[in-house]
């Protein structure tokens, strides 16, 4: 069972930046897809970004140009770190952010594709 542990959330003012991290361990698959979802109170869960071992990256329209996903670590993916650099944060970005992993390469930003979820890290943006 892969382990996903998020860190780096916090409170910032709008327009500022924040980077959140996800420590991935015990991921057993040779092809991989890791990503970030978020959920604000009273709103549906939203796929934010993903990164695949085939080099493809996807972003939600709402964050494109402001957020950057990246990954450090061996491409075997048994242990690596996935980052989400968030620039020009807006109040609308306030949410719990979850690190996720799929089995195999990335296909979509739909939540039913992702079998593994972290506990989440809170990001709060104030005006």
Describe this structure in words.
The chain is built from no helices and eleven strands. The strands form two sheets. Strands 2, 4, 5, 6, 9, 10 and 11 form a seven-stranded mixed β-sheet that branches. The mean pLDDT is 93. It is mainly beta. The chain is globular and about 45 Å long.
Characteristic terms for this protein:
single chain, 127 residues, mainly beta, 4-stranded antiparallel β-sheet
Helix and strand sequence: EEEEEEEEEEE
* Rg for CA atoms: 14 Å
Q: What does the average pLDDT come to?
A: 93
Q: What structural class results from the helix and strand content?
A: mainly beta
Distance between the termini: 40 Å
Biggest beta-sheet profile: 7 strands, mixed
DSSP summary: helix tally: 0
Helical fraction: under 10%
Tell me the β content. Answer: over 45%
Number of strands: 11
